[in-house]
Amino acid sequence: MKKWYCLLLLIGLVWSGPASAVYWDYFEDFDTTTNPSGPWTYGMQDPNDPNGVIVYDHGYSRAPDLTYWVDSKILDTTSADVPCAACNNHASATYNGLLPQHAGLHPGWNSVKSMVRWTAPQAGDFYVYGSFGAGDGGTVGCFINVNGSPVVSEANTALAVPFDFTVTVAVGDKIDFIVSDGDGSAPGDMTPLSARIDSEPYVEPNEGPQNLWDLSADFNIDGNPNGQWSYVYMTHDRITEPNSTDIIPPDTSEVTLMPRAATNHEGALLTCWFHPTNNWPYIGIAPTAGICWGAPFEAGEIGVHPGNPSESVMAIARWTAPREGNIVVTGQFEGVAPGTRDFYLIFNHTHVLASQYSAGYSILPFEFEMTVAAGDTIDMCIGKGTGWGSNMAKFEETISYPDLVTCADQNVYLPFDFNKDCYVNLGDFVIFAGEWLTCNDPQNDDCPTATP
Q1: Which residue of 67, 204, 345, 361 has the fewest CB atoms within a 10 Å radius of its CB?
Q2: Alpha-carbon gap, residue 147 to 29, rounded angstroms
Q3: DSSP output for 138-193
Q4: Taking a C-beta distance cutoff of 8 angstroms, is the pair 137, 260 a contact?
Q5: Is CATH 2.60.120 correct for 23-203?
Q6: pLDDT tens digits, 345-396
Q7: How are beta strands 393-400 and 302-305 bridged, if at all?
Q8: Where in the chain is the domain with CATH 2.60.120?
Q9: Which CATH number fits domain 212-400: 2.30.30, 2.60.40, 1.20.1440, 2.60.120?
Q10: Helix residue spans in 15-165 (DSSP H)
C-alpha cells in the first residue's frame, strides 16, 4: 500500500510538468505521396520571384526506397529528373551521394535552385538546426532564408554547412532551405539536408566529456576536423633510394586538411575525405559490405590510400587530445592489396610508436598506454611504399581515457534510462510522467501528434 501511495504522490508531483515538445523534421516528415504536406513544400525557387516557390507536382520512386519530387514539365521536355527533392528510406544503399535514411535536395541545370519550404503552422520561438551535407562531391550553394531574409549563405562549397539558430515566427511565416549549383554545373550536386525545427533546443544525450573515440564509429563527412579527429595529408620523402625498404619516419608537424568529401568516391564503395587533385590520398568508410578496388570490406571498416604517383603523399588520421590524462591506444594497420606501403603511428609529430614497411597483406597491430596533455596528437599514417599501385589498406583505432569511460561513451543504456545519465531514477520518471497519455494513433483525431 505504501508503494502505491508513493507512486501516486510522485505522479501528482510531476503531473504539471512541461508540455511535450513539438518539432518538424525534413526527413522524418518527408511525404512520398502528397506535396505540399503539412508545413513542408518541396519545389524550386521561382526565377521571377526569389521569395516564390514552384511546387514539384510529380512524385515517383526512382529506385528501391528512393523517392523524388520533380517538376513534370522539366521531366517531360528534357528527361531531366533535377531539380528535385529526394528521400532515401533504404536501410543501407546510398544513391548519388544521398546516404541511407536521409533526405536531400538537388539543383537543376541552368542555375535552377531546389528548395524545401517550412510554413509555420503555429506561432512561437523555435530552434532551427541541422546541416547541408557534403553529398555527392560537387560544389553547391547552401542557403536558408526566413521570410526572404538570409540567415545562412554559403555560395560555393563542397563541404558540409551546419546551422543552428533561433527564430520567432507567426503563423504563416516561412523558412526556406535552398540548394544551388555552386560552380554552374549540376552533376554531382545531390546535397543531403538534415533540418529540424524544434520548440526545444537540441541536447546531446551525453552532456559530459567524451572519453572514448573510435575511428570507424566517429567517421563522417559533415566536417573536417570532426571532433577530435582530423583527416589530413602531407608530402614525405620516405627513402633515400627508391626501392629501399629502409623507411625514414615523417615529421607530421605540417599537415593539410583534406578539403573534399564524397560518397561512392571514384565511383567505388567508400565514403571519403580526399585530396581533389588526383582523388588521392583518401580516408573513407564502407557504408555497407562490398568490394572496393578488389578488396573486400565489411560495413564500417575504414579504407585508406596514399597519393600520388609522382611523389609520396601520406594519408593521416589524426586524433588530438582534448585534455590531459592517461589514455589507451589500440588498433591495427592492415594491407588489403598486393602493393607496398609504409605504416607509421606517431605521437606528437616525431615520436614513432610503431612502423612497418608493408608488402602485400601484412598486419601491424598496436596497443599503448600513455599520458597525454591537451593538444597532444596521435597520427595514424600511410605512405605509398616502394611503388605506386595497389597500396590500399585498412585502419582500425580506438583511443580512451579508461578510468573515465561511462555508459554514454559506450552507447549502452538501461532500457528505462530516458535521460541517458547511466542511472534509472526520479529524473527518468519525470520524463515518463510528462509523456503520460500522449498518443500518435493516426485513427484518433484527438491525438496531438497523429499523422494522417
Answers
A1: 204
A2: 21
A3: --EEEEEEETTEEEEEEEEESS-EEEEEEEEE-TT-EEEEEEEESSS--TT--EEE
A4: yes
A5: yes
A6: 999 999 999 999 999 999 999 999 999 999 999 999 999 888 778 899 999 9
A7: antiparallel
A8: 23-203, 212-400
A9: 2.60.120
A10: 26-29, 72-78
